Amino acid sequence: MQDERAGADGLPTYADVARAAERIAGTAHRTPVLTSRTADAMTGAKLFFKAENLQRAGAFKFRGAYNAISALPEAVRARGVLSFSSGNHAQAIALASRLLGIPATIIMPADAPAAKVAATRGYGAEVVLYDRYSQDREALGREIAGPRGLTVIPPFNHPDVIAGQGTLAQELIETVGPLDVLVACLGGGGQLAGCALAAAELSPGCRVIGVEPEAGNDGQRSFHAGRVVTIPVPRTIADGAQSTALGDLTFAIIRARVAEIVTVSDAQLVETMRFFAGRMKLVAEPTGCLAAAAVLQGLVDVWDKRVGVVISGGNVDLATFARLTGEAA
Ligand SMILES: *Cc1c(COP(=O)(O)O)cnc(C)c1O
């Protein structure tokens, strides 16, 4: 049977973003769009910050997770889902599963921060710990998922995850009107690809830009090489963007619809966390500051433009937050 959901080439389209918006309506928060005269004065632009740090479970990932699980046929969904992640995707899957009344199994490294394991269990998920130095998590995942009939929901390379993430840009443009530039955070590319689909439909001509950590510039290299480039696990404080490669789906969309990919340093992320805390009274996690860091530090051309900026998450433990923002500039 033909899959009517995706486009002819298997990629999600704007229609999938629109359907995702219907599925998450009333469950995901319609997060606020914030402005700052100080930020506008610093950049000469009109900036619209989409505050996904205030999303449920603390990051935009809830959109894709809830959409992907909701889209499963009921009998499949009822058996449950599985994910391997120690970060925001795991918590998003755990919360979405609880809200949809299905079991979730999350495979996490045994040395993951205790607070993250506790948060994931707190949402009702079963956490299976593995030794990241000796065990292959994908093999372990298949071993557990197979007999139990669980559906694996990957963190970015999935049509319904991409479409779900795109709803954040759809809401932003619906709220503030057309944009000249939209700047998103880039890890595996779910957010950037989804936002690019929404922008192309709702704000034609908008330049969509992705921002990744300097140490993890696989996206930028892939963009220039015209093929997916894989790098070793990057060392960066942006722990939500430590993916080593884009997915085939996210890469195809990014290649076709994104104008530019730029990188920022960890020091620039810290500077941006300090700006959000000091000026806008916002807690943003390092990865959540990628897009804003590039804009506030003059790495993308925004002069005299209307610019959407994604603040993608706010999950940082307070000790780390205090240490990073308390450092001398
Ligand atoms: C996962 C994540 C990203 C990167 O998103 P991708 O869809 O993997 O590109 C950015 N910011 C935060 C806070 C995240 O959790």
Rg (C-alpha, Å): 19 Å
Mean pLDDT: 94
Poorly predicted residue ranges: none
Oligomer: single chain
Largest sheet: 6 strands, mixed
- Distance separating the two termini: 58 Å
CATH class of the largest domain: Alpha Beta
Strand content range: 5-15%
Would you give an account of this structure?
The chain is α/β, with parallel strands linked by helices. It folds into two domains: 216 residues, Rossmann fold (3-Layer(aba) Sandwich), CATH 3.40.50; 91 residues, 3-Layer(aba) Sandwich (Rossmann fold), CATH 3.40.50.1100. Helices cover 45% and strands 15% of the residues. It contains 14 helices and ten strands. It has a six-stranded mixed sheet, with helices on both faces. Strands 5-4-3-6 form a four-stranded parallel sheet, with helices on both faces. α9 links the parallel β7 and β8. The radius of gyration is 19 Å and the shape is globular. It starts with 13 loop residues before the first helix and ends with a helix. The mean pLDDT is 94. It binds pyridoxal-5'-phosphate (PLP). The site of pyridoxal-5'-phosphate (PLP) has 23 residues, from α9.
TL;DR?
The protein has 329 residues and is an alpha/beta fold. It contains 14 helices and ten strands. Pyridoxal-5'-phosphate binds at residues 59, 61, 87-88, 155-156, 165, 185-192, 240-241, 243, 285, 287-288, 312-313.
